[in-house]
Structure formats: C-alpha cells, structure tokens
Amino acid sequence: MSNKYSTIEEYISGFDNVAQGSLKQLKSILDKCVPKEATETISYQMPTYRYNGNLIHFAMNKNHLGLYPGSAAIEAFSDRLTSFKTSKGAIQLPLDKPLPEELIRDIVHFNAERMKDQNNPKWDAYRSNWTDCYELMEQIVAKTELSKAFKWGTSVYTYREKNVVSWGGFKHFFSIWFYNGVFLEDRDKVLVTASEGKTKGMRQWRFSDVKEMDEKKILAYIKESIQVVKDGKEIKAERATLQNPTGLLKEALNKDKAFKEAFEKLTSGRQREYITYIEEPKQEKTKQSRLDKAIPLILGGKGLYDKYKK
User: Fold this and answer.
1) Distant-in-sequence, close-in-space partners of 98: CB < 8 Å, separation ≥ 6
2) pTM over 0.70
3) Which CATH fold topology does 127-230 show?
4) pLDDT tens-digit map of 168-198
5) Residue 121 region, left (φ>0) first, then alpha (ψ -120 to 50), else beta?
6) Which of these, 280, 173, 160, lies nearest to 229 by C-alpha position?
7) For the chain, which residues make up each domain, given as ranges?
8) Most CB within 10 Å of its CB: which of 16, 132, 183, 197?
C-alpha cells in the first residue's frame, strides 16, 4: 500500500522548478479565494481544498495544469471556458499561458456558495468507541495493494484510483463498506445494503465487537474487491434526470402563476439548482429562508449562481 504525498507542499516539491512555479502560482491564487474555513489535504492523489466536501482539486500533468472543480462548475461556466479544453469535471490550463486568475476565483466562489450549507457525515464522532476495530483494519489493509485517499471526510482505500473499501465506527456498530460489493460472491452471507432503493453498488459488513472480526475473511473480501476492479466490473452512473419540485417550492409554484411561469422558463440546469438548493436542508425554516431568497431571482429570470458566472 502506498500514499505518495500527505500534504500539498510535498506534492509540489516532487516536480521540477518550472512545474513547481506553476503549481505555487495556482496555489497562491486559491489561497486568496477559498473560504478561511477551508482545509488543505490530498484526495485522489491530488492537492485538494475541502470545505464541507471537496471544494476543488488541482494536479500537474504532462502538457497542462489540471483544475478539477466538478461537473456543476464546468456546466455553469461553459461560456467562459470555450478557450480551454474541458471534460465533465476538469479544466486543462495550458502551461505556456498566464493562469486565468479571475476565472479561477469565480469558480471557487461558485463552489463555495453551493457548499457553504452542506452537511457531511461526521465519520469520527464515535471513533474512540471502536479503536481496536480501526487498528485491526489498518493492519489488514496494509497487506493489500490499496492506496489511501481522503474523500467525503474520511479515508478511502483505492486501487487504480477506483474506490474499493472504507470503514467507520457508528453508535451501535462498526462497519466496513465495499464500494463494489454488489459484485462480490459474499460466501459468508454477511453483506447488507445500507439504504434499500438508493444504494446500488455498495455493500456493508457490520460488527458489534472487534472479536467478531475475522482477519482472514475480511482480507479475502478485500482481495476479491480488488479483483473486481482488475476485471473492469462497475456500475455505470445514470444520467441525471430533472426531478419535479416538491415541498415548499411546489406549494409556492402552485399558488403563484407568474412565479410558476418564470420558473418554467428557466433552463433545466437552473431549475435543478433551485430544486436541490431549497429541498436539501432538513429544517423547514432553512428551506423557507432559501425559498425567500430564490423567489426574486427566479422572477427576474436569473439562475441561483449567475452572479458567479459573469
């Protein structure tokens, strides 16, 4: 198992002086615009800024500097990215041209606005209750070919950059989850689906005590999971479909004809942004606050994040 870099500084120092210059310049730009609460880490073997999740990644490639803000940002800034080569979640910044500081800043602010109220699971809340389980899993995974990455607020072990296994302690049980568990033979009939109807590929193995954890069996399941990656088995991501408004947004649309007409005139992408933004919080008062903010923007024909796309 290997983890080549543990900090952004270590990552940058691994390149020649010319590449280091570009990386340091990009990091300087990011340092000025990421929220002060953001933290630095290495995720997917790339320098990463985290802010209620992965805010943005970057990496040096052979012929370009890669910026990875995610697909939502790529879609939102498509008009300003026409001179750059892009993919679903990546932007290629040419090494022979100045870095587009204003564009980078606006993309970071766009992501930060989307993520500022996002709540992520606190995987370490009960860690002290399961110390022996964590230690055993570290010993087991050290015997494999896996690499360690930091994703979604916790450690994830990967093979060929594909997620394989992770684990965490909860209030009533310790769980190992296999990202491609649906393909495992599960000869011991121990795997469960955490969320029926939502979870497609992932399966969990739960324990109430470290004494229940059989090292040989767990290692066998992990090795089988690695073989699944080697065999190229994976569940293809489905194309996102536009969901219908629900809850407070639906009520507001039904009550106000002009508001409904304005909402329906928005692009599907903008509609999706508003639906997610308003329905995401758990508390009704937060949903209402977001709806109040959204109504004048929608009536004005504006998208939720348009101010960051100029």
Assistant:
1) none
2) no
3) Aspartate Aminotransferase, domain 1 (3.90.1150)
4) 999 899 999 999 999 999 999 999 987 655 5
5) beta
6) 160
7) 8-115, 127-230, 247-308
8) 183
